[in-house]
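User: Second chain of the day. Same drill as before.
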Amino acid sequence: MYDVNYEELLQKGVKKSDPSWKIVSCKNGWEYDTVEVPYSSISTEQNWVCENSALPSTAQAIFFCGAILGGLVFGWIADRFGRIPALVGTNLIGLVGGVATIFCSGFWAFSFCRFLVGMAFDNCFTMMYILVLEYVGPKWRTFVANMSIAIFFTFAASVLPWIAYYLADWKLLCLVTSAPLLFGLLTPWMVPESARWLVSQGKTDKAIGILQNLSRYNRTNVGENIYEKFRISCAKAQKEEDSERTYTVLDLFKTPRLRRITIVLIILWMAISLVFDGHVRNVETLGLDVFLTFTIASATEFPADTFLTMVLDVWGRRWLAAGSLIISGIFSLLATVVPVGIPSATSAILGRFAINISYNIGLQYVAEILPTVVRAQGVALVHIMGYVASIISPFVVYLANISTSLPLLILGVLGVLSGLLALFLPETLDQELPQTLQDGENFGLGQKIWDFPCIKKKEVQSEPQLRRTSFRRASIRESFRGAVRSSMINRSSIRSGKSICVPENQIV
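Assistant: Same format as last time:
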């Protein structure tokens, strides 16, 4: 507040403040406007305003620092000890951090708890996402990956602001949103470990046990001779691949082509994260209340994911990622030149719709391109860089104080440029997930930048009773069949110059 005598100024007829007046801390306390948000927050309870107004933003930055550490830690755990331990761990630390937030009475205690929650942020989702992708066959991969987001994420995110409005207590909201993470502790008894990961670690017998359980559940008869061939081929391949080696995320940068792909993925995901978060924050300029704005922004996920599910396995990942990013950029730029109001708001919402598509393609795309032995660590690294970009997004949106067009201008240019960059990635449609680092290095060789799956001539192949399987050319429009005809078998077959004949009626 200004350190002046207001009575004297009013007597002199001064009714406008002078920025040159001396400023001191507020002496008489604060009254908070509860019209838009009809309940208190930790910021209002702790009076994080005026000279302390930067504390909430600092706490948010600390939250993303936790996300960076969590991505490194749980990515390493997932590749070293398994997907299930990482999934349980990230849910557990999120539960502890969320519940502990309720008892915070100071900034640093609150920031530490948000740091813990940040470690779980996104990781509790991506670990589950990786596990699903490694089990679900290519035929259903897109449907399962995207419709789960379209239905469950969209519904939960849309009702979240109204739960907050109904509870009208930030501590109770923390408890209600954190408690469900407790169910994550039941994961080891409900979800099997990734068979792909087990094979990559040389634990073939455990993988076979899981496959046998799944075949019984699916009421499919698989001959013991198939499992024996699987076991022998995996052992041979593991010996050649040096199964005792410990892989790290640095292995992604040791070969030229895999290094280039990883760098492009990092830049692309940073751009997607920044544009996505920028659009989320910029929606507030539409003039709606915060609860309705959040709901509208979240609801755009459903049509975007539904559309994506319908076309992703037809148009492919690469061109759809590029196209959605470019379209998002075009509509963002269009919002800066059309009249302010309904035209600009409509363009901005369409830009948000397109970036939703890009975001969900990116989630699946990254997990499909990176090889199994470092997939969790690689996905974590890419997402960590996305967190770094997300920290920048509030400052991009803050530029609206200088010019209301600046945020959308930056988001638009970034969307168009990153869309063009996406064309330099390999297409993963109808491709087996790469298992080893060498698979990742060779992935997409022979593809051209203008290859478009939708119009590319499809080769007609016969389907005899006895099919010759090959890691490179096997039909992958089969669901869980690829698990028994593991890429480990096929790599061993290729190296030995032999192929394994698998009877059609003995495949899971």
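The mean pLDDT is 78.

User: Great, on to the next one.
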